[in-house]
Design brief:
The chain has about 350 residues and is an alpha/beta fold. The protein has 13 helices and eleven strands.
C-alpha cells in the first residue's frame, strides 16, 4: 500500500511538472524606433503582439520596447535582431544603404499606390527576390507605407521649387530621386526629422501623412505637396524580423503561431495601418489650416519625366550586381497593379 501511494504521488508530481513545463512562458523582446503613440507601434505592432499572445494560449509573451528604449540607433535595429540582442524588430530597410538591393525596386519613383496594396505586392515580390538578402533572420513581413509627399516650409508648387531645397530623404534611392528633382538631399532616420526642421538643418522632409502626427510636422511646416494620379511620388520599405535562434528554439506548435502571423496578411495589417494613419495626418493638417497642394496631371508628368532616368540607372546598377534589374522593376509594377485592382 505504501509503495502504491509512493507511485501515485510520483505520478502526480510528474503531471504537475509536465503541465508547468507546457505552460512555461516564452518572453520575447520587440524593439522599434518610434514613440508608442505612432501609427505602427499602436495600430500594427501592438495588435500583432496581442494576436500572437492570444493564439499561443499565453505561452508566448512579447514585451514591446518603443523609441529605441533598449539602446542603439534606428539603423542598428536589423543587426540587433540578426545578432540576438533582441528577438524582434521593425525597421526601415533603407537605413542600411546598399545592403538589401533587391528591395529598392519598390522605392523607385511613382511605382506605388496605397500602403496596403503595395505592402501585399512587396511581400510577394520579396518572397521571390529578397529571401537570400534576409537569410540571417526570420522575416515576419515586408511592407511599405502609403504615398510619400513633400512637407515644406515654403510651398512646392512646381518642379523648379525643388532647386536647392534641403530635404530629408529616408534611403539611398529616395536621396537619388531628390537629386534628380533638383533638391539637396539630407539623409537621416525619421526620429531626427522634427529637430532638423526646427533648427533649419532641412527645409522640407519626405514622409507619408501618418508620420507627420508623432513628429508634429504639420506644426513645424505648413505646406504639403502631393501628386495627381494613383501613384505616389515614392514609398519606403520596412521589415518585421525575428532572430533566427529565438524562432528555432520554439516548440513546433509555437513556431506555427509565429508562422501563422507572418506573410502577406501581416504585411497587409502594417500597410493598412499606414493608410489609416495617413487619413489622421491629413485631417490634422487641414484642421491647422495648412496649405495642401496637389500638383495637376501636367505638372506631375514633369516630375515623372525628371525622375525617370533614376529607374534606368538603378536597373543598370542591379545588372552590374548580377541581378535582373529590368525584371525586378517589371515584377514590382505588375504586383502593385495586381493588388491595387483587387
Amino acid at each position: 500500500m505504501r509503495r502504491l501511494s509512493f507511485v501515485l504521488a510520483a505520478a502526480a508530481v510528474g503531471v504537475v511538472l509536465s503541465a508547468s513545463a507546457y505552460a512555461q512562458e516564452v518572453t520575447l523582446k520587440f524593439h522599434q524606433m518610434l514613440p508608442p503613440q505612432a501609427t505602427i507601434p499602436s495600430k500594427a505592432i501592438k495588435p500583432w503582439i496581442e494576436k500572437v499572445e492570444k493564439e499561443s494560449g499565453g505561452r508566448i509573451k512579447i514585451d514591446q520596447y518603443d523609441a529605441m528604449a533598449l539602446g542603439g540607433k534606428p539603423p542598428e535595429l536589423f543587426d540587433q535582431a540578426k545578432d540576438g540582442v533582441v528577438d524582434l524588430i521593425w525597421t526601415v530597410i533603407g537605413y542600411t544603404p546598399g545592403r538589401f538591393p533587391a528591395t529598392e525596386a519598390f522605392e523607385l519613383p511613382f511605382g506605388m499606390t496605397t500602403g496596403e496594396a503595395t505592402s501585399k505586392a512587396f511581400q510577394e515580390y520579396c518572397e521571390q527576390y529578397c529571401a537570400d538578402e534576409f537569410k540571417d533572420v526570420k522575416v515576419i513581413a515586408w511592407h511599405t507605407h502609403g504615398p510619400g509627399l513633400i512637407h515644406s516650409k515654403n510651398p512646392v508648387n512646381k518642379l523648379e521649387d525643388m532647386k536647392g531645397l534641403k530635404i530629408r530623404g529616408g534611403s539611398r534611392v529616395i536621396n537619388q530621386m531628390l537629386e534628380k528633382l533638383g533638391a539637396t538631399p539630407v539623409g537621416m532616420p525619421v526620429p531626427a526629422v522634427s529637430e532638423a526642421l526646427s533648427k533649419g538643418v532641412i527645409d522640407a522632409t519626405t514622409i507619408p501623412w501618418e508620420v507627420t502626427v508623432p513628429l508634429k510636422v504639420s506644426e513645424l511646416v505648413h505646406n504639403h505637396t502631393g501628386f495627381s494620379g494613383k501613384n505616389g511620388l515614392y514609398t519606403q520599405t520596412f521589415v518585421v524580423a525575428m532572430n533566427k535562434a529565438s524562432y528555432d528554439k520554439l516548440p513546433d506548435d509555437l513556431k506555427k503561431v509565429i508562422d501563422d502571423n507572418s506573410g502577406i496578411e501581416t504585411a497587409a495589417l502594417f500597410g493598412h495601418a499606414m493608410d489609416e494613419g495617413d487619413k489622421v495626418g491629413l485631417a490634422i493638417a487641414k484642421k491647422n489650416g495648412n496649405n495642401i497642394i496637389t500638383l495637376d496631371e501636367a505638372e506631375t508628368q514633369r516630375w515623372k519625366d525628371a525622375a525617370a532616368p533614376l529607374i534606368d540607372a538603378w536597373i543598370e546598377e542591379m545588372n552590374g550586381k548580377g541581378l535582373s534589374g529590368a525584371e525586378m522593376v517589371d515584377k514590382a509594377h505588375e504586383l502593385v497593379e495586381k493588388y491595387s485592382s483587387m
